[in-house]
Design goal:
Structural class: alpha+beta
Distance between the termini: 36 Å
Shape: globular
Helix content: 10-25%
CATH superfamily of the largest domain: Glucose Oxidase, domain 3
Order of helices and strands: EEHHEEHEEHEEE
Radius of gyration: 21 Å
Strand content: 15-25%
Strand order of the largest sheet: 7-8-9
Number of strands: 9
Number of domains: 3
CATH topology of the largest domain: Glucose Oxidase, domain 3
Mean pLDDT: 90
Number of helices: 4
Low-confidence stretches: none
């Protein structure tokens, strides 16, 4: 995140209550975008939110069951975890996808003090949530990351392992404008040349 070769280093001006104070707006520079530099946490939100979105837009494809099916298609979720951690985290294989392009795992080795922190919080009455991506995020739990064997996954490593034959990647090139045919994007203007999508 601190490497200017990987981060555009954008700043944005704050609004109330920090008027005029710039905040960092980190964005990844490279194939894979911000997934190159983000915290690589994998959270998908609560079931109730998806069901409410579906109700608001009157389209059941946005509800939890349909959205979860799509999540499972992209996930390659490693649910294997050391036995000592299973009292804190226990994602069920049937609740998550295996075989998708995006590797997901809970860290195999936890930082010193993490289990003690979970215990201390649970002693206040907040429950331990053994699967924060089950559709019920209430409680305290271990959040999985987009990684495999501790190595970061990015949009590039996940989706370009098998590069489609019709994909042409241009690096070190700024996009100036997306070109449309009606509402359909068909290419980009780079300033040097046009890159057109060939259906």
């Amino acid at each position: 995140m601190l490497d200017p070769r990987l981060n555009w280093g954008y700043k944005q001006l704050s609004h109330e209550p920090l008027v005029g104070q710039p905040r960092t707006y980190d964005r990844g520079k490279g194939v894979g975008g911000t997934s190159l530099i983000n915290f690589a946490m994998y959270t998908i939100g609560p079931q109730d939110d998806y069901d409410e979105w579906a109700r608001i837009v009157e389209d059941e494809s946005f509800n939890w069951e349909n959205t979860k099916t799509r999540y499972k298609r992209i996930e390659n979720y490693n649910t294997n975890l050391a036995e000592e951690y299973r009292i804190y985290a226990d994602p069920k294989p049937e609740s998550h996808g295996q075989g998708g392009p995006l590797n997901i795992e809970i860290a195999r080795h936890w930082e010193r003090g993490f289990t003690e922190t979970l215990e201390a919080i649970s002693n206040t009455g907040i429950p331990i949530n053994k699967d924060v991506n089950s559709g019920d995020p209430i409680g305290i739990g271990a959040t999985p990351g987009t990684s495999r064997n501790g190595i970061r996954e990015t949009a590039s490593t996940s989706y370009l392992r098998k590069t489609p034959e019709n994909l042409h990647i241009v690096t070190n090139t700024l996009v100036h404008k997306v070109q449309f045919d009606g509402k359909r994007a068909i290419g980009v203007r780079t300033g040097e040349k046009d890159c057109m999508y060939a259906p």
